[in-house]
């Protein structure tokens, strides 16, 4: 069965370097300089792209603008930055914790993707719900039929 749907996302896959930044993990002194990507996505993003949830949960209605800031990370981020601990429930921030930058809680871990292509290493990735950081987004569409059938005639 092929799943059809759309999945808005902040940056398009197959870009050489997606939006990313250094970050700090709560309870650790150093800022991690290895960039962690940050993609703003809608709840159906992983299902449309067929990226499996490995642990935790996907985003839901409870992840609104007034709720606790949440993120889903990929397996490489979990293994790289939380190698000997469970990342679920852990918090990180992209800003300076001394400047009251908001903390984000990890609620899920998904499988890795090869977003820069099969000839490039997997990025350490994080995803945030669009309800908590609304920006202009690109829409990705999966169809079971001929793609040209859903595009307007020239």
Q: Helical proportion?
A: under 10%
Q: Return the string of H and E elements.
A: EEEHEEHEEEE
Count of distinct strands: 9
Overall, the morphology is globular
Mean pLDDT: 83
Low-confidence stretches: 6-11
Could you give the topology of this structure?
Layout: E1 5-9, E2 20-25, E3 31-41, H1 45-48, E4 53-56, E5 70-74, H2 75-81, E6 91-93, E7 104-110, E8 125-129, E9 138-142
Parallel strand pairs: 3-8, 5-7
Antiparallel strand pairs: 1-9, 2-3, 2-6, 4-7, 5-8, 6-7
Describe this structure in words.
- By secondary structure, the protein is mainly beta.
- The strands form 2 sheets. The chain has a 6-stranded mixed β-barrel. Strands 1-9 form a two-stranded antiparallel sheet.
- 7% of the residues lie in helices and 33% in strands.
- Residues 6-11 have low confidence and may be disordered.
- The protein is built from 2 helices and 9 strands.
- It has helices at residues 45-48, 75-81, and strands at residues 5-9, 20-25, 31-41, 53-56, 70-74, 91-93, 104-110, 125-129, 138-142.
- It is globular, with a radius of gyration of 16 Å.
Tags for this model:
globular; six-stranded mixed beta barrel; 154 residues; mainly beta; single chain; two-stranded antiparallel sheet
What's the quick description here?
With 154 residues, the protein is mainly beta. It has helices spanning 45-48, 75-81, and strands at 5-9, 20-25, 31-41, 53-56, 70-74, 91-93, 104-110, 125-129, 138-142.
């Amino acid at each position: 069965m092929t799943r059809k749907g759309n999945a808005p996302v902040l940056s398009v896959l197959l870009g050489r370097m997606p939006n990313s930044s250094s970050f700090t993990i709560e309870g650790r002194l150093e800022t991690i300089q290895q960039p962690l990507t940050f993609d703003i996505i809608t709840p159906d993003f992983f299902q449309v792209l067929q990226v499996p949830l490995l642990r935790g949960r996907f985003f839901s209605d409870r992840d609104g603008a007034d709720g606790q800031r949440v993120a889903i990370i990929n397996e490489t981020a979990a293994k790289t930055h939380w190698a000997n601990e469970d990342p679920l429930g852990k918090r990180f921030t992209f800003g300076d914790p001394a400047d009251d930058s908001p903390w984000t809680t990890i609620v899920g871990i998904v499988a890795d993707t090869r977003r820069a292509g099969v000839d490039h290493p997997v990025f350490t990735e994080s995803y945030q719900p669009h309800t908590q950081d609304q920006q202009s987004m690109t829409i990705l569409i999966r169809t079971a039929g001929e793609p040209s059938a859903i595009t307007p005639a020239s």
